[in-house]
Amino acid sequence: MKRKEFRELVPVEEARRIINRLQIRPEKENSALENAYGKILAEDIVTEINVPPFSRATMDGYAVRAEDTYACSETEPVKLKLLGNIPAGSDVSFKVSAGEIVEIATGAPIPEGADAVVMVEYSSEENGTVLIFRPVAGGENVMKAGSDILKGGRVLRRGRKLGTREIGVLASIGKKEVPVLRLPVGIISTGNELVSPGGNLAPGKVYDANSYTLYTGVQECGAFSLLYGVVKDDETGIRKALETAVSECALILTSGSTSSGTGDVMYRIIDEVGETLAHGINIKPGKPVVIGIIKGVPIIGLPGNPSSALMIFNEFVAPFLRKALGAEAGVRRTETGILGTVLRSEGRQQLLPVGLVRGRVYPADRGSGAITSLSEADGFIEIPPETEYMEAGTAVEVTLFGEVEKPDLLIAGGFCPGLDVLEDLSGLRFRTLYTGSSGGFSAIAAGTADIAGVNMPSKRPENRRESLPGEIRYNAPTIENMGLSEVVLVKGYRREMGLLVQQDSPVSGLEALPGKRLINRNRGSGTRALLELKIEELAEKKGISKKEFTDSIPGYGSGAKSEVSVCEAVLSGKVDAGVGLRNCAERNGLKFVKFAEEEYDFLIRKEVLDVPEVRKFLKTLSSAEFASKLPAGLQVYERTGEIISY
Amino acid sequence: MKRKEFRELVPVEEARRIINRLQIRPEKENSALENAYGKILAEDIVTEINVPPFSRATMDGYAVRAEDTYACSETEPVKLKLLGNIPAGSDVSFKVSAGEIVEIATGAPIPEGADAVVMVEYSSEENGTVLIFRPVAGGENVMKAGSDILKGGRVLRRGRKLGTREIGVLASIGKKEVPVLRLPVGIISTGNELVSPGGNLAPGKVYDANSYTLYTGVQECGAFSLLYGVVKDDETGIRKALETAVSECALILTSGSTSSGTGDVMYRIIDEVGETLAHGINIKPGKPVVIGIIKGVPIIGLPGNPSSALMIFNEFVAPFLRKALGAEAGVRRTETGILGTVLRSEGRQQLLPVGLVRGRVYPADRGSGAITSLSEADGFIEIPPETEYMEAGTAVEVTLFGEVEKPDLLIAGGFCPGLDVLEDLSGLRFRTLYTGSSGGFSAIAAGTADIAGVNMPSKRPENRRESLPGEIRYNAPTIENMGLSEVVLVKGYRREMGLLVQQDSPVSGLEALPGKRLINRNRGSGTRALLELKIEELAEKKGISKKEFTDSIPGYGSGAKSEVSVCEAVLSGKVDAGVGLRNCAERNGLKFVKFAEEEYDFLIRKEVLDVPEVRKFLKTLSSAEFASKLPAGLQVYERTGEIISY
Fold it and tell me: How far apart are CA A123 and CA A103, in angstroms?
């Protein structure tokens, strides 16, 4: 007997219907025009004035009856009698008859009788007479009354989100205050594991991101967020938070505490003090979603995982908020992209977080973990239930996570501080996925990255004459072994690799490692592979087996995922030595014991070699400025920028 | 001798160089995370923690060694010993060995030894023993430490504009405060004709829109606006405003008072108290632009016309602001569109304001006035100096005026309150250009509108048998006369047309008009054409000429541009009668004396007949709800929705 029955998941369309039937009523308030940006208009705006309110001159010059100028020319100017001058903002009135003219400034009202303005450049004035050297047509250099906005018309519709242009239009019809909608949405994060940003991160705790992403998401819809912070996952705490929120909000969004686990109480409380309308939507990741009403106030419980919460918010809640605000269609930010890689779905309807780089869409999923990450996703795509397979090249619509600035290049592979320098100098925006070198080769093979930074060493290639036996070669042998084609390897720069030890450590080289506690890097990292080769060389020299040597080093099998973890372990004294770059040692005040100089290169798919962003990347790599700005231990050399084609 | 020499205009590229050499230094300040949205990051953000900080369960269930489950199945579950329970947020530690299992909640840390989580659905617990019915793979339902963000890496680069996702990332690494840039930009509108919104609009005055559009434009760039309001166009006022702004701002933007007219003093003051770097850029509308420095603070004077000011701001100032803030590329919002109509340029480099409707680009220019309007433009395109002609269908890049919500349909023609009903019910956004019926036919012919609302009457067509002599037909004859093809006429609804008079007026019909002061509608309006036909009928009946009749009506030749102007003239007693719709009379408390029932139809280009927005428009037109919501005097009839193809 299984402990728990599967819940009946609500179909997607049914969930939408349930949400759309929820009643929320925004309040109306007046906003000063300068604070109205991004808010939603509460009423139709009908203008009581024309814009411009009168026909006005668009140039400095002279107001005339156009017909008086028809016969004039550069050599035979017409002579007209000057009646006076109308400065901008003046209410001086003249009546211009045949043979008469009035000096006029840009923006001033055209006097009665006149129907055009001669630019000052084509005139000459003397003793009350003006000579005109060029004819004007009727209406020339005149902006007619009401030609921008005609009075009596509806200039903006209720529900319009106020942007730059709308604010300008409201100003130009004289509105100082505008009626906007106020829809207070309460945001509660629940979970015993959550700590608010700025708090102390005890073991087992994570920072609460949902409060902040939902806060901005709600604001972007034109509603008003109220943050209630983090609430513990217990009945008392949640009940109390809900009670406050119910009294202050038109809608409540919670995240976390909605799954079927033992510690999760949100849906039980809604059931007790209100009414549950749905629990679980049949779309991945909608299973934990709960929809209910407490004392007339709708409440929607979102998943705890940040990217899942944002997806469900965008898919179900944001359209509802916009509808409640009467906001017009088109606010949801979507962009069409092309799948950069094959996608397999489980044949269940799904929202899949994706990255969007130069119109290419790739799953924002490091492959290993079951849960995808907020930092890598620009938005998500919807995969229909019947789809199990989507080919690379398929056009898909991406719903963006708010107002996203999209990256220019997607770079996988091993971490290197040189990448930050490349990013800064090129002005490009990188999306970097530090997958280790092995992961970089795979990402290029799968088409999920544009560039991979790799430092994978190999020894004694068997079928190549050009390398000496025993010589370590970088990256090229891996490309050959994997049979990669349609790629190029661009030689990068050299990096000093060594042991990282405390300043007073006696460790002076690899031969001192036996008996010392080591923190190694993770499998798949080029650094680990290089250490292994160097140890193999050393063991050979010593006449012992590699295994014998490594077995004598406690922690040799460990695998830190980042250099920072390595440094921390050394600094804390938990281990006696780590492995990493000189730069890393120096930044952390550690001693660096060099054991090799390796080559860090860039593997690039041929397909993208000519896109402007990649060209810019390569240009920066070969620049003198880049060479001069590389941190200690990294150095360009004669092969930097060399391109090897496969 | 001409009064004024042409100034030497600065070439565009030289102007960019001058602006880019200006020195502005943003300040650094800390912002609470919840207020950081839209601001620019002042420093690189390097994370000191992994996200998640530990490997965590992504499902409720049991943490196991995956290999312990490999052999189990639905029918032959494996039995494992339950060690305990790890709730989310707990720091309880267990060590899981072969044959052991620990209950775990979503989000809780994976205990030592375990490498996967079995979902609770595939388990059953009894007396300290757990049965597992389905194998899991290593890593399944586990999110590894650092798999979202790896510690030590730069997660966000200095200069990043903070959006939803960035705020979420900062929260998830625990930042409560973030270092952002503060760049105060002062905004001054100058001109004697300007009144701040909310003020009284005396004759000759217009409302100041530039303060507000520039305010939002500056904010959108991530800088901070300071509004100094409207300043009179005199030395003392402008000097004083500049003095204050120089002491408070890093950059000053003014608008107006920069042309060469007699009343314009801005550039003279800059020359006196500071240094003028450029006056006039050789790009339309950049002629009035002035660039200078006062006491080390750069000042840029923009044109007074709102859409010109916005274009120059977007083209020259916004890129400079973003660069000063170190903001990364790609913030400028552009969109590619297809020219919907032929464009002729004057062969001078130009920024042309355009509308953007469903990817189609058309000039936002009503043709008549020399100056284009803010309310119709979504952005602008750049026309190179050598271009004199651009074909319809050419792809162009539109720089958007800030964050624009683009219209769904572009509708030209005669005004009708029924259009507001259609817009509300369809949920579509219309861009309406009330050009009169004639203008509507032209806009469709030129391809610059999708739909035109038209009510143009004609009588006695000569070559058509189906109409009776003397019968008035609507719109179809005009289509035939203009030789329009590739269009359809969709029959709309009937409108009661009549004279609008004061409640106590003795005027009871057209025959009472002689000797009464009339306000007529403008030429090109269907209403005027209909009145003319009806008067012709009446004159014929009376045995006099039409001219004789109309000459007897003072003001017959007048031409109000809108119904509202007509109503105002009647209400004020300036005239005795006007002409318009019943609806308009009723809304303004006037008496309505009906003289005809006309047909208001929709002329649509065939090309767009099948786009979803047009289909939705037509569906709404034929709906019962539309019929029921039409205001008094407008009525659907049996032909509503009928489509006549040409």
Answer: 11
